[in-house]
Amino acid sequence: MNEVIGSDHEFHDKNFVAGWADRFVPTPVHAIVSTWALHDLGNKENIYVVYKRCAQVLRHGGIFLNGDFIKPDKAIYEYEPGRFEIVKHIELMRDVGFKKAECLIVLEEEIESPTAAQNYACLKATV
Ligand SMILES: C[S@@+](CC[C@H](N)C(=O)[O-])C[C@H]1O[C@@H](n2cnc3c(N)ncnc32)[C@H](O)[C@@H]1O
């Protein structure tokens, strides 16, 4: 399980979809970083829930970085529903209230014979 790190440096083991930030996130939050995790939530709707909560808890000027597996634009295969195109991530980030959302880098892009560990990107969003 992933951890939500509080200002007192405690580690909390939470389910990201089921109200993870309701009780345990001390505010103001300056930055949220997620790596290789949100695709595991299984679909766009769950990722939307997490993006929305991140936008809510971040202070003005706060930053959200999400490094995660994506579906490449030129994909020729189906990908699991939690892995979708960068443009859709950016759309979701804007829908939930981030002022600016962008892709910083795409790594290990592989179209022809991708492994599950390839095709990931770092997305940045600010409120
Ligand atoms: C591929 S691992 C990445 C772990 C770590 N962030 C890293 O970069 O090494 C994905 C993690 O997401 C966690 N996870 C899956 N669904 C979750 C949920 N609903 N709430 C919280 N964590 C979840 C899994 O337990 C797993 O630890």
Textual characterization of the structure:
The chain is α+β, with helices and mostly antiparallel strands and 127 residues long. The chain has three helices and six strands; from the N terminus they run ββαβαβαββ. It has a four-stranded mixed β-sheet with strand order 3-4-6-5. It has a two-stranded antiparallel ribbon with strand order 1-2. Strand 1 (3-5) and strand 2 form a beta hairpin. The chain binds S-adenosylmethionine. S-adenosylmethionine is lined by residues 1-2, 15-17, 35-37, 40-41.
Task: Summarize this entry quickly.
The protein has 127 residues and is an alpha+beta fold. It is built from three helices and six strands, in the order ββαβαβαββ.
First and last CA, distance? 27 Å
From the coordinates shown, what is the CATH architecture? 3-Layer(aba) Sandwich
Principal-axis shape: globular
- Determine and state the CATH class: Alpha Beta
* CATH fold type: Rossmann fold
H/I helix tally: 3
Parts with pLDDT < 50 across at least 5 consecutive residues: 1-9
Q: SSE string, helix = H, strand = E?
A: EEHEHEHEE
Q: List the strand order in the largest sheet.
A: 3-4-6-5
User: How many domains make up the coordinates?
Assistant: 1
The distinct bound ligands, ions and cofactors come out as: S-adenosylmethionine
Total number of beta strands:
6
Q: What summary fits the major beta sheet?
A: 4 strands, mixed
